[in-house]
Design brief:
By secondary structure, the chain is mainly alpha-helical. Helices cover 68% and strands 0% of the residues. It is built from 7 helices and no strands. Helix 4 (60-72) packs parallel to helix 6. It is elongated, with a radius of gyration of 28 Å.
Length: 140
């Protein structure tokens, strides 16, 4: 019923029809995609969000999950976030996570001088809570 020429002709017509529609600007292709309707979060909003989060932490899992999420961003957390995380670690009696906050800061900063600035800013909290860094505990 269908000859080979008819099938080839209809296939060629279908191909050229698709090619013509693909090169024409259509309203579907010209639409701008909006994957997220939310405005970008500022650094202050980020800081406030994580400070509130760490103030309400009740267990080790939530503390470590919050630290993982916070340090996953492409920025170094503010001193206020680190202070809230350290207080949360001591509140739930998790000394090892408190030490790891300092370790994560050391890895996250670009220069050793920045890490020393963080240590200086967090020194009152560190002394108040009786915390030590990995280096002060004798580890390299």
């Amino acid at each position: 019923m269908f000859g080979i020429r008819t099938v080839l002709r209809s296939a060629a017509a279908a191909r050229t029809g698709i090619a013509r529609t693909a090169t024409k600007p259509s309203s579907v292709l010209a639409q701008r995609r909006m994957y997220s309707e939310q405005p970008e979060e500022t650094y202050e909003q980020f800081t406030n969000r994580y400070v509130k989060f760490f103030e309400n932490v009740d267990d080790q899992f939530e503390l470590q999950r919050g630290l993982n999420n916070c340090f996953a961003y492409d920025l170094v957390p503010d001193v206020a976030i680190c202070e809230a995380a350290l207080r949360a670690a001591r509140r739930i009696d998790d000394f090892s996570t408190a030490v790891r906050v300092f370790e994560a800061l050391q890895i996250k900063v670009d220069k050793q001088s920045q890490y020393e600035d963080y240590l200086q800013a967090l020194k009152p909290v560190k002394d108040e809570l009786g915390l030590l860094t990995k280096e002060e505990l004798g580890f390299k």
